[in-house]
Write a sequence for this structure.
């Protein structure tokens, strides 16, 4: 999911629509460019998404986050806040730094 979120021109709504269609990030990344275009992804965005460079960017981002003590959580992860999933345009990826939350207790977070 991190790889998808780092593709320029691919927003949260498009990622969500692709997930609804293909079910998993892996399925999205293994489809053909023509399938992406048929689902509203511009050719240049599809090319970037499927390129080896997008995998490299995701790997670099993951390593950087680990170095900084940041946890990356995608919308499919069970720890993703359930109420956040329900908003109109939920972020596909959360970068979390600090104490881990307890979902049974009311929380405040800064998202953006």
């Amino acid at each position: 999911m991190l790889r998808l979120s780092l593709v320029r021109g691919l927003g949260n709504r498009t990622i969500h629509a692709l997930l609804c269609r293909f079910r998993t990030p892996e399925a999205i990344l293994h489809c053909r460019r023509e399938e992406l275009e048929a689902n509203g992804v511009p050719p240049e965005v599809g090319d970037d998404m499927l390129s080896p460079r997008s995998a490299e960017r995701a790997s670099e981002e993951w390593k950087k986050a680990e170095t900084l003590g940041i946890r990356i959580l995608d919308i499919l992860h069970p720890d993703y806040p359930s109420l956040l999933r329900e908003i109109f345009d939920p972020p596909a990826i959360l970068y979390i730094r600090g104490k881990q939350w307890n979902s049974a207790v009311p929380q405040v977070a800064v998202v953006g």
Observations:
- The longest helix spans residues 52-67.
- The mean pLDDT is 90.
- The radius of gyration is 15 Å.
- The longest strand covers residues 71-74.
